[in-house]
Structure prediction request, 187 residues.
Amino acid sequence: MGVDVFVISILVGWLRRGSIRGFLNLKIKGIWSIIFSFVLQFIVYTQAQRGNQWFISYGEWILILAYVILIYGLTMNINTYSFKLILSGVILNFIVIALNGGRMPVSHRALVKTGIINELGPLFDKGWYGRYIPMTDSTRLKFLGDVFFIPPPYIRPAIFSIGDVLLFIGICLLIQKFMTIDMEGHK
Prediction:
């Protein structure tokens, strides 16, 4: 879903006669902490998926650390409205993930309606949850989990949370800001 938001945001920026050159003016404080957070998350997910027992056992703690680092980096940019939305979305996702064993709870209904159950269902049956965990009666703060969905016929069915919505709106606004920066006369 994040890729879709990014591509659509770029297209809207072009329709508004914006330019990718505006990204040359992009100055994000704490960018290395943000990048490091994503690298940590990638390592945990790929190593756990490969069956690395250490990452399976301790991955949730590394993911929580990665979110703390990400939140730190984002707070350095809190003076920008789009970053306030991004940070709010990340914090909501962090809360529900931290309270549910380091994994995002995902609605069974959303899995079925999108057809994603065909991918994740067999993995769930084997006990491998990756970054998701099926919602149960003991799931904490279900409403913050992945409960929203875009089903087929959309070409890329997706499941997402309210935190993701805020995050995606913030990313879209940030892309628009920097693509149209020359149009508005800002530097």
Summary: The chain has a mean pLDDT of 89. Helices lie at 2-15, 31-49, 53-75, 81-98, 108-114, 117-125, 162-179. The chain is about 60% helix and 5% strand. The first strand starts at residue 104 and ends at 106.
